[in-house]
Amino acid sequence: CQSCQIGEGKFRCLTCSGDQTFCHSCIVKAHQFLPFHKVQEWVRKCFQDKSLKELGFVWHMGHGGRRCPFSDDPQTWENIPLDAEAVFQPMETINGLAIPTALTIIHSTGVFVHNVVWCGCPGTKNQQHLQLLKAGLFPASTTRPQTAFTFKVLDYFLIDALECKTSASSFFEKIHWMTNNSFPDTVPNRYRELMRVSWLWRDFMSQKWFGFGHDVEKEPGKGDLAWFCPACPQHGINLPADWQDKYDRQVI
Q1: Is the pLDDT of residue 84 over 60?
Q2: Centroid of chain to Cα 87
Q3: Which among 184, 213, 16 is positioned nearest to 110, based on CA atoms?
Q4: Alpha carbon of 148 to those of 31, 82, 115, 142, 204: distances in Å?
């Protein structure tokens, strides 16, 4: 391992720059804040894909990625051995609020599944969707979310649809191939969720751009979310004051 110089360096990251190899514990520690990197493990004669979830990575909501102090977790996950020989079963015996949720997350580089532990601080009950939004993830539902989209992939799809006229079906097929180009059918299909979330995202972004993002008292009226068109004839802007007498209305 090029980090600790102790463990066997048989893990590498395809997303990180360089050709460093890490042991089990160091690869998880190095990706504590990089959940969408793609990791491989050396098995006998070649590298094979390995998810961070399989290596024991746990995404704690809130508190900067650390375990919530109000969690009912009787164990301290930082003390669990993550060496190459350890048989690690992530969070199977946890009680209370620290029971993990297998969350499917769609990013611009593929589809990922992570063990997510929700924040258990007072006042956060039934606010899992808000915790995801604070983490830069848009939940597909507000009640017990099981799927989320990163803000980056939603922006990417919005631009791709506007400029390249890419449909949601074609866009998600591309995500399928980026996740697993050998067996894309094994990737979870979240096409319907993408359709619903992309509509909401486009509406929220439009309200933000037109000044309604943080105004809960004023709702958009008719035409308030329409883009200004400089080519359309508009009185006082690109029409003379006497346009009604000078031009035939049919011409305008």
Answers
A1: no
A2: 29
A3: 184
A4: 20, 28, 13, 10, 16
